[in-house]
Specification:
alpha+beta; 5-stranded mixed β-barrel; globular
């Protein structure tokens, strides 16, 4: 398997996705020039707990990031993201205009993120623990109710 350590700067394209075994996946948009035609979308993943928590609770689409990790060459990919991130730095927060269409809201100890571009709503506990993805805003209460039943009620 051919891999190489890399450092890449770019912008978080969308809300990161919580994956299996505590991983988080996200797309980083990087451009070697100022021409939009040169933009590269780099699929990334990480299992580093501190980075996963930051991606799912603090970092927003449009944030300017620098990532350090291992790049896997395309001919050896096994369905995983080509960049495994070991270190992540936020260089600058997203401009307010990039966040205008996203809203975070709280339901007690639960946090939900509404995005105007999609009906699905990610749901987390305030400590960053992934709860699930509600199909639409009307199913948030059902998802939270199921989570509370499975995990012992309101005492989180």
């Amino acid at each position: 398997m051919s891999t190489q350590p890399v450092t890449i700067e770019g912008f978080l394209q969308a809300v990161p996705v919580h994956g299996a075994r505590g991983a988080a996946a996200f797309d980083l948009v990087s451009s070697p020039t100022d021409d939009i035609a040169d933009d590269l979308v780099i699929p990334c993943t990480t299992t580093t707990p501190r980075i996963v928590t930051a991606l799912l609770t603090e970092i927003q689409p449009g944030d300017h990031l620098r990532v350090f990790g291992t790049l896997i060459e395309a001919d050896v990919l096994d369905g995983s993201a080509p960049l495994t991130v070991d270190i992540l730095e936020v260089l600058a927060p997203a401009p307010a205009r990039a966040l205008r269409e996203m809203v975070a809201d709280r339901y007690g100890d639960y946090i939900v993120i509404f995005d105007a571009d999609t009906d699905t709503v990610p749901v987390f506990i305030k400590d960053g623990t992934w709860v699930g993805l509600a199909d639409n805003p009307d199913t948030i209460a059902t998802l939270i109710d199921i989570h509370q039943r499975v995990h012992g009620g309101d005492d989180l």
